[in-house]
Amino acid sequence: MTTYGRVEFSEFHSESVGLIFKVEKILLSKKSKFQDLMVFETKSHGRVLTLDGLVMVTEKDEFIYHEMIAHVPLYSHPNPKKVLIIGGGDGGTAREVLRHKSIEQVDMVEIDEEVINASKEFLPTMSVAFKDSRLNLIIGDGVEFVKDKKDEYDVIIIDSTDPISIGEGLFTRKFYSDCKKALKEGGILVNQSESPFYDPKWVEGIYDKLNDIFKVVKSYTAFCPTYPAIWSFGYCLKDGGEVKFNEEAYKSDNLEFKYYNKDIHFASFSLPTFMKKIVYKGKEWENIMRVN
Amino acid sequence: MTTYGRVEFSEFHSESVGLIFKVEKILLSKKSKFQDLMVFETKSHGRVLTLDGLVMVTEKDEFIYHEMIAHVPLYSHPNPKKVLIIGGGDGGTAREVLRHKSIEQVDMVEIDEEVINASKEFLPTMSVAFKDSRLNLIIGDGVEFVKDKKDEYDVIIIDSTDPISIGEGLFTRKFYSDCKKALKEGGILVNQSESPFYDPKWVEGIYDKLNDIFKVVKSYTAFCPTYPAIWSFGYCLKDGGEVKFNEEAYKSDNLEFKYYNKDIHFASFSLPTFMKKIVYKGKEWENIMRVN
After folding, report:
1. Interhelix angle for B173-182 vs B200-213, to 10°?
2. How large a percentage of chain B has pLDDT more than 70?
3. Which residues from chain A sit within 8 angstroms of residue B59, using beta carbons?
4. Per residue, what are the HEC states of chain B?
5. Alpha-carbon Rg of chain A, whole angstroms?
């Protein structure tokens, strides 16, 4: 039998512009307790995971987001041993964190077990992280988990969905304040902080709140081809200071990266002018954003 | 009468992934002597110009590409007076070049008069450049134009379409060699050099050829939301040297930019690892790409 229909998946970033995928095969389409999950196969980007109709990862380009959310904080910390990941159910962030020799324990708190199951079944290059004995996987609410933690983590990474529906609690002053408390002295918090080009209001809100809680808040960026335009990451230092680079750990780990490198480590903090205005508004942003 | 149909425009960057626009109204759709032209209206991105089905500019985000192709070379030259633009029929690049006080003459060679006419009719924020008396507009083939030029230009900007069909001649060793000859001592050539994420083979070919002709060849990048992923620009110094920044001209011009700034000027030369391998392969790229 010849079939004439064709499935396309599109995600609009604004009223008129979006991303479109030619779908070869739907591998999974289900409603979990928290959200709609879909995994589909494509020819050029491998498998794609979407949550509530938004692209989370594609096998082809997930390395960019995951390398950048993990290695920038880890290589700017002098000796990261214990890391907390909130969200990140596909496993990609944990995979990158666990490549660092210094890491002794990663607590990962994912609210939706179905995302982990989908990754284990369909995304082997990401779910490989779940086999690492240093990973302590907790199925639960990150907001609740972090409430009673104190001086426990060197680095906290918030690898969340958008500040709507189930992700909302991960974008509040209360949660950021609990995270700060959960960090050890000299600790670093990084979160995915949305697209300044397509969602400037979200980005503005995130940095407003982070700035109320943390002494030093910066922002860095990466090109994530299947996210809406330039992507931003919040970078917060519990006790202030500058963005550093741990040359010794970098050389000793001797890892191969596909996106991250020492130049990118610093250059990613240089922001386009429109973005400086969103992130550093009301401050002397020409000075505050300099990294070295 | 109610209409039920809806027009969507999609441009695929690979076999499975592309950009999709909801089209409010087709303003122009015609075949010129050289290519298919289309201008359509969208709600979130204003007017969009496509050539042979590829997005050239949208009113919302053209500032990124045009600021970056113009200001990086101009502010790294000590005193740019005469500039040659090859292509760039929409006028956006010329508009940005003409903002610099030092500029006395811009020769712009566009092969397709219909693109200029379309811009004049539909893209007023770009075609404003055509009213500037310092602009010398030539309708003709850039390859032919540059052949007999010698020591004439401080900066040459190649704002072309892709290395297929009519753009092809603008991606050859012969053309690059003629451009080098057309540059004055200390001159700088910049070209749009495609998407290293989606078209690495094109990018590799461009840098191979540039490297055969120019003493120093570097690459810098920008986020162009409606181009395929990260966008690259070739940066060539006729007589070698480093990437500089003309602080004096920058302060004296005192222009407002939406994307470009001094930090971005340097940071844009820091390339993701996969891109270094494409652009600086066979060279000690860890060293050669450092800018200061």
Report:
1. 50
2. 96
3. none
4. CCCCCCEEEEEECCCCEEEEEEECEEEEEEECCCCEEEEEECCCCCEEEEECCEEEEECCCHHHHHHHHHHHHHCCCCCCCEEEEEECCCCHHHHHHCCCCCCCEEEEEECCHHHHHHHHHHCHHHHHHHHCCCEEEEECCHHHHHHCCCCCEEEEEEECCCCCHHHHHHHCHHHHHHHHHHEEEEEEEEEECCCCCCCHHHHHHHHHHHHHHCCEEEEEEEECCCCCCEEEEEEEECCCCCCCCCHHHHHHHCCCCCCCCHHHHHHCCCCCHHHHHHHCCCCCHHHHCCCC
5. 19
* ipTM value for the complex: 0.94
User: Band of the pLDDT at A167, cuts 50, 70, 90?
Assistant: confident
- Considering only CB atoms, A258 lies closest to which of B10, B223, B274, namely B274
Q: Tell me the average pLDDT across B192-213.
A: 95
**Contact call for residues B142 and B130 (beta carbons, < 8 A):** no
Interval A269-278 mean pLDDT: 95
Contact residues, chain B, for A21 at CB < 8 Å: 16-17
What tens digit of pLDDT does each residue of B212-251 get? 999 999 999 999 999 999 999 999 999 999 999 999 999 9
Question: Closest residue of A to B21, CA-based?
Answer: A17
Q: Is the pLDDT of residue B291 over 50?
A: no
B49 alpha carbon, distance to own chain's centre = 15
Name the residue among A19, A230, A259 with its Cβ closest to that of B273: A259
Chain B contact set for A269 (CB, 8 A): 267
Mean local confidence (pLDDT), B173-199: 97
